[in-house]
Amino acid sequence: MEVSKPFLRKKFAKDYAKYYEVPLFRQEGFEHRVCEKCGKGFWTASGVHSCGDSEHEEYSFFREKPRNESYASFWKKFSDFFSRNGHEIVPRYPVISRWRDDLYFTIASIVDFQRLENGRVVFEYPANPLVVPQPCLRFPDIANIGVTGRHLSGFMMAGQHSFGEKGYKRDKCIELNYGFLTKVLGVKKEELTYGEDVWALPDFSAFGPCIESFAKGSELVNSVFMQYYWDDGVKDLPLSVIDVGWGFERLLWYYRGDQTIYDATFPMEVAYLKKNAGIRETELTKKYNRISSSLDVENVHSFHEEKNKIAGSLGITVQEMEEEIAPMQALYAVADHTRSLLFALADGGLPSNTAGGYNLRVLFRRALGFVQQYELTDDYVKLFEMHARDLKPLWPELEESLEWIKPILENEEEKYAESLKKAKRMCGSVVRSGKLSSEKMAVLYESHGVTPELLEAVAGEGGCEIDVPSDFYSKITSRHLMGEKNAEETLVVNAPTTKPAYYDDPKKTEISAKVVQVFDDAVALDKTIFYPEGGGQCGDRGFIDDARIEDTRKTGGVILHCTPLAKNFRKGQKVRLKLDVDRRDALTRHHTATHCVNAAAREVLGPHVWQCGSRKEEDEAHLDVTHFEKPSRDQLLLIEEKANQFVLEAHPVRVTEMNRGEAEEKYGFRLYQGGGAIGNRVRVVEVEGVDVEACGGLHRDNTSEIGFIKIFGAEQVQDGVTRLRYAAGPAALKKARSDQLLLEEACAQLNVSKIDLVNSINRLFNEWKERGKKIEKCSDVIAFDEARKLAADKAAVVKKQLDYDADTLQKIASECAKEKDCVLWNADGFVVAACAAASKNDAVALLKTAGAKGGGSPRFARGKK
Ligand SMILES: [Zn+2]
Ligand SMILES: [Zn+2]
C-alpha cells in the first residue's frame, strides 16, 4: 500500500476523535466542523464555517496604535508562562548546526535535539519537557523579505518540546496552547479556531496529526505530534515527540498589532533607517502595508509582473511605486538580513562561495546593495550593534561577538566592491545581448556576484528592461543549502567487526591476532593495533608476519590491512602484528600538534575560526580553518609561537569516553570541530587548558612530547577557508634542514654569505634590468642601420633573410616600411611583413607569399614558416 499525505489526511479525518480531539474542546465549548473552503476538519467555539487559515482570511489583528512591547519583554511573558507550567527553559543552540551532518543551518527548534546515528534520527535532549528560544535561519523566501510584511530569513522558534512517556501528550499540549493564547496573547475564545492537518517527513519515517491555531487571519502556531512511522501500515514510533514551534516574531506581531512583522520585531532599527533615509510614512505606504501581507512573490511569475499588479491595486504607476514603496521594502529587508547575519557570524558562520556560507553572502550582498541603492545609512555596522543591544537580555553573546564580527564585515564589503566593479563591466554587455534566463543570471551571480537588483539597475541606466524571475533567490540558495556536506559512502565487506586494540593500549607495538577474512589485497583480523585512516590521521603501517602492510583502512566496523601478499594468508591463521613505530610516532605528534595549531589559530585570528578539514601524514600535516582572508605573515608567526608555547607549557592530553549529552553539556558544540556523525558515546580528547574536541585519533600523552612545531605555509584553498601547513618533531627538523640546504645552495651559486644573499639578489636583478635596457638601445641602432641598407635595395618589395631575434627583426621591418615594403625572416622561421603607409600591398598577403602562416593588419603582419 502506498502512503501519502492525502491518504493520511483522509484516514485521520475519518477518525478525528482519535487523532485530534482533546477534552478541552468539549470543556470550552468547541465543536467539530468541516471547513467550507478547504474541506479540512476544524474546531470552533463560535460556529464559524471556515477553518481560519490565512489563505481564507485577511489579517485583522492590526491596531491603529500598536502596543509598546519589546522583543525581550515579550519573551519574558512567553517563557514565564511555560516555566510556570513545568517546562525547563534551556539556552539556545548555535544557528550553524554542527552537530548535524546533513544540515548547515538550524532551521527549526527540534533540530537542536536531533542527532544522526547511521543515517537515522535519534533524540538528545537536556530536559523534558522543555522550551528553547532557538534562532533559526531559512533562505528560500529571500525574495519575499521586505516585500510581504511577514517573511523573515532569521526568526526565533520558541520550541516547546516533550519527549516520550516521561513527557506529556496531546491533551496537555493543547491545554497549554489554549492557556497561552487566551491568557497571555489575549486571543478571545470566539476568535480562535483549531485546524486539523497531517505532518510527515518526506519518507514517512515519522509522521502524525498536527493541530494549527488560527485567529484573525493569522496562523499562530502548529502543534505537531510525531508519533507514527510507515511500514506497510501505521506503526507507533519508539519515541513519540511533541514538536510545537512557536514563531516568536509572529506572536509578537500579533500582540503588538503593527502593520508588518518588521515593525514589530525590530522597531528601533526600522525607525533608525527611516529617519536616516528620510522615508516618511504616507497614506500610500500605509495602504501598501495593508495589502503587502497577502503578497507572495515566490508564487508569481516575475518581480516585474508583480510590481505592475501591486501598483495597479494601489492606483499608482510602477514608477511612483518604485519611488515611494521600494525604499521601504529595502529597509525592511536590510533590518532582517543584518539580524540574521549577526546570528550566523556570532556562531562562527562565514560568508563564502560554497555551501551554507554562500547563503550568508547572498544576505550580505542583498543588504548592502539596498543600503547603497537607497542611501539608507552610511554606517550599516550600526545596525548590527543595535540588534545586539536589543537582543542582549536574551543573548548577551551577540554583543560580545561584535568585536570580531566587524573585520569580517569589512572584508566582505571589500570583496563585494571588487566584484561589483567587475559586475558592472559584465552587466552592460550581458544586458545588451538580450534575453536572460534565470540559469544565466544564477551563473552571473555565482561567479561574478551580480545581483538581480544590480542587473535591473544597469539595464535601467542603459534604457532597456530585463525581467528577473521571482524564484531567483530561492533557486540559488537551495542549490547551496547543503553544498559538500555529504555523508561518506562506505563499502560493505563481508567480515566480522575488528576489535580496535589501539584504543585499549596505544603503547603496544606488537600483538598476536587471528585472520578472520582474506581479500585480494587486504587482510581482516579479529583485533588489531594498526590505526585505520580516519579523522584526517593516516593509516598505520608495519608487518603482519613477513608481509609488509602498506596502509590500514576501515570500512564499516571492519579494519583492512592492505598488502599485496594478502593471498598468502588463510582464514583462522594465527599471526603476529608489528607496528611501524616511527611512523606511528610521527602521526601522533602531528595529530596532537593539529589540536594545538587549531587552538592557536582561534586565539590569534578570532573565535570564528573552526576546523573544516585536516590531514596528518608522516612528514607533514595540514589544517583547514574557516577564515575570511589569508592570514598575514605576522599572524602566522603568532600562531606558530602560540602553538609552540602550548608544547613548552607541557599540557596533559586526556582521552575520555562519555555520553553525548554529557559531553555537549560539559564542553558545548566546540567539541564538533571535525564534524561527522556523532554516536551515542563520544570520545573526547582534551588538551588540558588548550582545546577539547570529539576525536577518534591517536595522540601523545602530553603536548611536550610533540616537539617543535614549524608552520611553513598558508594558502586560501577556497573562499573563506585557509590551509595551514606544518610539521612537528623530527619531521619539523627535516623541513627546517631542507630549507637551510636550499638557502646554502643559493648562497653557493652566488658565492656569497647568507647575510649578503638578499642584497646580492637585488643587485643582480638591477644589473640584469639595466642590461636589458642597453640591449634594447643597441637593437634600435641595429634596426635603423639594417633598415637603411634594405631601403637601398632595388626591388619593389624587399625579401630577405636576416639572422636577428624576432623583436629586432620586427623593428627592422617597421623601420624599413617607412620607405619600402618588406618581408623578412630569420633562421628560426619567424617571418614579418610590413608595408609603407602609402603602399598598395597588403602585409598579410605578403606574409603568405613568403610561405608563412600568421596574421596581422594590412600594414604589419607576422607569422611562422
Ligand atoms: Zn479551511
Ligand atoms: Zn583530532
Question: What is the element layout, followed by pairings?
Answer:
Layout: H1 5-14, H2 16-19, H3 23-27, E1 31-34, E2 41-44, H4 71-84, E3 88-89, E4 114-117, E5 120-123, E6 130-137, E7 154-163, H5 170-184, E8 192-200, E9 207-215, E10 218-230, E11 234-247, H6 248-256, H7 261-265, H8 267-277, H9 283-292, H10 303-314, H11 318-324, H12 326-346, H13 355-373, H14 381-391, H15 397-432, H16 438-448, H17 452-461, H18 472-479, E12 499-500, H19 501-504, E13 510-518, E14 522-525, E15 527-528, E16 542-544, E17 547-549, E18 551-555, E19 558-562, E20 574-579, H20 581-605, E21 611-616, E22 621-626, H21 633-648, E23 653-659, H22 660-667, E24 681-687, E25 691-694, E26 709-718, E27 721-728, H23 730-750, H24 754-791, E28 797-801, H25 806-816, E29 821-825, E30 830-834, H26 843-849, E31 853-856, E32 860-864
Helix pairs in contact: 8-12, 12-13, 12-14, 12-15, 14-15, 15-17, 20-21, 23-24, 24-25
This protein binds zinc ion (2 copies).
Summarize the entry for a quick read.
The protein has 865 residues and is of the alpha+beta class.
Which labels suit this protein?
865 residues; alpha+beta; nine-stranded mixed β-sheet; seven-stranded antiparallel β-sheet; 32 strands; 40% helix; globular; binds zinc ion
Would you mind describing this structure in some detail?
By secondary structure, the chain is of the alpha+beta class. The chain has 26 helices and 32 strands. Mean pLDDT is 89; it is low at 482-490. It binds zinc ion (2 copies). One zinc ion is lined by residues 535, 591, 595, 685, 693, 695, 697.
